[in-house]
Specification:
By secondary structure, the chain is mainly α. It is built from eight helices and two strands. The chain has a two-stranded antiparallel sheet with strand order 1-2. It binds fe (ii) ion (2 copies).
């Protein structure tokens, strides 16, 4: 990773380029929905946007940075809790990009790059193909961030289990059973 590209610079750029979206009611609602493990949809979307920007700058790719950040922030703008069983989102993995696109088109003015980024981000799942460089960057970044978030929650779960077992061992006395 290019050391000249700092995390702070990337976060600042995401906040500037994605300001309209980040300050919206829809994104505020995303803070209440979990995505992977303990990560909210809002945190996941911000991380993905930051990763997209970092990757494109690191590789000096010729991209539309505004569309890259906005499309990434909105890629999971489906606005429901997919952990709660409901027939409206039974096939969440396949259908949520279209739900996200519908909501995003309702709440924001999107360009063709942003639309394609949202609809194709689950590629190779679904029928929409990533046809822009920005869409391909999002596909890759989303999968990398999702893997990291899931691994972090599994590792936190194992750590908690270890603490629980250690606590049980230290407090356990045979006399407790008598
Ligand atoms: Fe998604
Ligand atoms: Fe995602």
């Amino acid at each position: 990773m290019d050391s000249k590209i700092s995390e702070d610079q990337i976060k600042k750029a995401v906040k500037e380029l994605g300001e309209e979206i980040l300050l919206s009611e829809g994104m505020a609602a995303e803070k209440g929905y979990l995505q992977h493990g303990f990560t909210s949809v809002y945190e996941h979307s911000f991380s993905v946007a930051a990763y997209c920007l970092k990757l494109s700058r690191m590789l000096s790719l010729d991209v539309d940075e505004s569309s890259l950040v906005r499309g990434a922030l909105l890629h999971d703008y489906f606005l429901y809790d997919w952990h709660v069983p409901d027939k409206s989102h039974r096939l969440h993995g396949f259908t949520h990009p279209q739900a996200a696109l519908r909501n995003a088109e309702r709440d924001f003015s999107l360009n063709h790059i942003e639309r394609n980024m949202i609809s194709s981000h689950m590629f190779p799942l679904g029928i929409s193909l990533p046809i822009y460089r920005e869409s391909i960057i999002l596909c890759i970044s989303d999968k990398i961030c999702a893997t990291g978030e899931t691994a972090a929650s599994v590792s936190a779960g194992i750590e908690r289990l270890g603490l629980l077992i250690a606590g049980l061992k230290s407090s356990f006395r045979i006399s407790d059973l008598l």
